[in-house]
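Appendix C reproduces, verbatim, an entry submitted by the partner laboratory led by Prof. M.T., so that reviewers can inspect both the input and the predicted structure.
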Amino acid sequence: MWRRARRRFSIAAPRLSVRPHIAWYLRWSMLLPFVLAALVLVWFAYDRGLEFAGLHRGETQRELSGLHARLTSLMNENVELGRQVAQYQQQIQMEQGRSQEIVKQMNSLNDDKIRLQEDLNFFQNLTATQGREGELAIHRLSLEHDKIPGEYRVRMLLVQSGQRVKEFTGSYQIVATVVQNGRKTTQLFPSDVSGLAQFKLKFKYYLRLEQSVRVAPDAQLQNIQVRLFEQGAREPGARQSVNLS
């Protein structure tokens, strides 16, 4: 123990260092610049890494804002294009409707042209072969199905020959042969007094007639006979028959 004490206080004792005392806040104030520099380096490296990877916050925000603006613009353009498409479709439908109407009118005019040509040929032949003065005749009699079941359409041309004929006044009658449930019957048109007005006649040289007749939907109209009656006469002045075409 003496040796240990002697060694401690003798010339061989360990050296004693004397250093000045530095306060903790001074130590921290000296370390703070290095810490801040390290943080700046770390943030700079992080920011450069984001920019290198394409994930920079500012750039991403700007790109998102640009994409949102572009999306809004495209949506507005889409709405405008949809409105224009609707207008164009409406115009196309109107044009198609006009085209269909024009086609119908052209077909109707073509039919009228054919009918007039037939009338011209008919009257030319009629002039070449005149009958007795004031003679009644039924020409171009036809019987066809109509659109509604049980309805038929009758067309005819009534002619009174001669150049100095008086006006014909009278009526006409349609006698129809109908088959229903295997039985053949005859029907008269007009069938009652209420329909007489539709069958009245008044013309001088010629008259084109078109009449609709109706039978039971389950019946079949085979043929008709048209009879012309002068006013006050009991016997027909002319008659003509035709089968269903």
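The radius of gyration is 56 Å. Additional entries are available on request from the coordinating office.
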